[in-house]
Amino acid sequence: MESSSARSGGSTRREATRQKLYEAAVTLIAEQGFSATTVDEIAERAGVAKGTVYYNFASKSVLFEELLRHGVGLLTASLKEAAEETAREGGSKVDALDAMVRAGLVFIDRYPAFTQLYVAELWRTNRAWQSTLMVVRQEAVAVVEGVLREGVAAGEFSAEIDVQLTAAALVGMVLVAALDWQSFQPERSLDDVHAALSRLLQGRVSGKG
Amino acid sequence: MESSSARSGGSTRREATRQKLYEAAVTLIAEQGFSATTVDEIAERAGVAKGTVYYNFASKSVLFEELLRHGVGLLTASLKEAAEETAREGGSKVDALDAMVRAGLVFIDRYPAFTQLYVAELWRTNRAWQSTLMVVRQEAVAVVEGVLREGVAAGEFSAEIDVQLTAAALVGMVLVAALDWQSFQPERSLDDVHAALSRLLQGRVSGKG
DNA sequence: GTTTTTGAACTGACTGGTCAGTGCAAAAAT
DNA sequence: ATTTTTGCACTGACCAGTCAGTTCAAAAAC
Description:
Two copies of one chain form a homodimer.
Chain A: H1 12-32, H2 39-46, H3 50-56, H4 60-88, H5 93-110, H6 112-122, H7 130-153, H8 163-184, H9 190-201
Helix pairs in contact in A: 1-2, 1-6, 4-5, 4-7, 5-6, 5-7, 5-8, 5-9, 7-8
The first copy, chain A, binds a DNA duplex through residues 1-6, 11, 13-14, 17, 38-40, 48-52, 54-56, 59-60.
Pfam families (chains A, B): TetR_C_24 (PF17932), TetR_N (PF00440)
Protein name (chains A, B): TetR family transcriptional regulator
Domain HTH tetR-type (chains A, B): 15-75
């Protein structure tokens, strides 16, 4: 018989197990890389048996892919939210960029391991999950590109900026500054880091200030 | 006899073999990661026997570490050269930064695989070669920090900029923009990319332009 | 004649993935 | 109300294959 013990989209127990596996995998892979991390390690850290990993995910690669989707989904939602709230409050496009910079920093602060792992894999070639990686990357970068384009359309940004390259550069600015912050100056506050990046974003570097 | 022909370190033949191994390892590891790359693969791509790898390097890790040192050494030299030439020509510190941005782009354009590999490893923790990684990172970033500090001292940059964070952000800007360029818009010219980054660096984004 | 390279065989530890079986809470049957 | 059945979620020993690193005699390069 169809037991139907938990009709609403998968049992709670299973979802909890998957979450534990995500959390175990993300830190281990961030530290060691995908290949150097064994399924046994992931299972052990998650506190489940190895078979459970394969009960919940078709393979180690699939676990990783779903982890990527899950994580970037959170980031993209956060960036959109930041941009939309700024718009709602009548802020300029620079304000929107600034809010997104902060949202990015908050995300990296909350999920540093995921960020490390993502950066480490993003530009590799010939990997099984490359298409997944590109899709989720595009989702996130598109939010930044959108704000830049709107800014150009509204005359707030120079029409001569290269939207794609500028978006990539902004993402890189935040990414590397934040990872450096985490790795080498963890005592600094998020506001400190945000202030430094705002200054750079708004071109307030040159001049006596 | 230790003939005059090879003062710096070892025979020419041996050095050539090591160079071939570097080149083979750098592309393979950039594509697949360190752990997923086998010594047999490296030897095969380099066109030497496996025994030769172990005759020239104590282990796979040591080969990788020396590769890191070698590569970042080239980058650091190139950055210094760019900064010094700008100074020699009487350029401003912004000019020096701009020249270093270009030098970074040229480097990434010439050694994309090395750059990928380096970025993928830089923020990992608990790895055998972590101290090597940090040392060489610091050598490179210090060049940027130095120019920023001189700019502050000379009153060209605001005294309120955070040198460390700004340097990291600038490096990130170039790194990510360049890797994106390589990966997703390889048809663009170096000058194009450089122009986009210059604009951002000099705060010529806002405004009708 | 010394240094460097070759190449193939070998070892021993490790790994992704499998699978027969267990535990258990809810459903069905009595 | 009690017993029986169902099937989901999980378990962990096991397997077949892989890989870093070793060894070494012989050849090649210098």
